[in-house]
Request: fold
Amino acid sequence: MSATDDDPSFLARARSWLTTTDHKRIGLLYLAAILSFFVLAAVAVAIVRLELLTPEGDVVSASAYNRLFTVHGVLMVWFFLLPAVPTVLGNFLLPLMLGASDLAFPRLNLASWYVFVVGGLVTLAAMVVGGLDSGWTFYAPYTTRYAESHVVLAVFGVFLAGVSSIFTGLNFIVTTHQLRAPGLSWFRLPLFVWANYATSVILVLATPVLGMTLLLIVIERLLVLGIFDPSLGGDPLLFQHFFWFYSHPAVYIMILPGMGVVSEIIACFARRPIFGYRYIAYSSLAIAALGFFVWGHHMFVSGQSTVASLLFSVLSFMVAVPSAIKVFSWLATLYRGRIELRTPMLYALGFVALFTLGGLTGLFLASLAIDVHLHDTYFVVAHFHYIMVGGMVMALLGGLHFWWPKITGRMYPERWGKIAAISIFVGFNLTFFPQFLLGLEGMPRRYHSYPDEFTALNVVSSIGTLLLAVGYLLPFVYLIGSLWRGPKAGANPWDAAGLEWQTDSPPPPGNFEVQPRVESEAYAYLAAAREAEDST
Amino acid sequence: MSAKQSSADLDRDRDRDRDRVREPFASPDHQRASAELGTWTFLAQELVFFAALFVWYTCQRLRLPAEFAAGSRATDWLLGATMTGLLLLSSAAIVLAVRFASERRRLAGILTLGLTMALGLGFCGIKGFEYHAHVVAGETPVGAHGRFWSVYFVVTGFHLAHVLAGLGLFGVLLIAWLRDRLRTNALIMAALFWHLVDIVWIFLFPLLYLIDPKP
Reply:
């Protein structure tokens, strides 16, 4: 990255990357890793969508189909969505936004990447030697007893990914507490930092339960101990409780950092200070806290008591409050703003639309009676794809475009960026909106064949996937191309507020020539605009 | 005045040797505060990790109270109490070692750190003896009261793994101290971890050994 390298050998450069403790390089290492997993998972789901083009199971066998959607789910959730924004954009930006030279524990940061990659390779090994057909949720007692597949390897790989995210969360928490620049008080922090802080709290306090649960599965399977298997005296529902105690907060790990990205982009391209700064900051913490008390809404039909279901239902509805606070604050920021529809802004607006739809359909699923009808149908699949893909992937792409000039020092081609953003938005809706309808009509998830009456909507969905795939491929091509062909960006191409824009693009090792000081609130866009008006 | 200054310089040099301030931090205090916050965050994570085991224990015990009482009677509360005593003493010893490290009393520090390790090894020895006796007596997850013994072996196994990890850390620190290269921050962090190991055991002891001591 640095200009002083006068063309050392390839090996020396690879070595300097693989032993780096620079948070910016580690962020890029993470980007390479998660994109590799994304591509593999996307290929798996391409075959799934091809299979679903016709009602008959004619492309792959039922058991191969099960393995394919498991590859898709395991890789996408554990090795792409969960780490996506925190480890890539968070790693790159957190110290820059705080005015620090690095994260608090740079070597721990590098270690987290290695643990993550080893975890991914272990899980991939399980997929290669025979695969896994449990879905991404590893439900016991299926995984502990009946599944004839490589559960132990796959589960252990996911455990390692969990360890890696605990390292990252710990690092972010200490960094945010300890390494803020002089004058950068908590309520002057960019909302991206607040979002990543809330995410880190979930990472540290929820992931250990997943870690322990997965280790218990490994122990039960290897030593035939009765932990989750009822025939050995275990309790299969305990697995579901443990799993969702982590995995529901994990949904907020996947969406909160995306909300942080969107807050930054919307304030910049509406040229206004964010509306309701404190409310957005607090709502991140509220979502993180509430997230720990809603896991039972995944278990409405598993025989838990009506009282428990009722409580979990009410608590789940409460998550809508902080989420809506964010959405309305973004809309209020746009109101009377000087809106520029740049590529990152298209992604941010797409995020708001898709997240709102995903969130509102979540309320359907949080309603006890309706959930009985919709549980395990395509309605659920559509709902969580609207949150996780419509939310997180849009935010990741928006953030990647927004900070691309900062990360690489080069501009991406604006026209191609817009074409990709629009085709992703259209392709996404074409793919997943029909799945809401399929679910309402009762099509269950995870089957490789289906009755004829579901054909039309499935064909629409599969065609949408094609458009979505084109939209995802485009950024791969033009972003890599921009490394050589893109015009130089300069330190602050968007005229954006925030410490990260005050240093060079790409930032030098150590980030800042002089320790920055902060003397104003975040998002000082109006003040800047007024100053500009005054001077003319 | 110059004498005072030079002794201050000397102190600073020694500090620099022992706890070199690394890049993102401004001063030794800043670095120590960050290291401690990091350790506490890690310990919070460890507590949640064990919490899952305690939930499993609670579920099984509520379902099978008689089996748990019977299993518990097969454990030796005297051995359990001895192990508790060993861990508590070792925690006191590591507190002293940290104190000696900050006072730069190397010999006393090395001795107390060694004592901590000896007490910890004593714990492991008794635990190993217990495991052996249980397995020989058929008190295993597949035998009678197997559901109690499943919990017993898994929970104490995870705890024992943490004891061994702590002893490993102390071993590395002891070697560093013998070579006069101890970083006080590292010792503080390891000591905090050791207290967690201690606290978890304080809950495990009554939950496993003292459910119903009367036959």
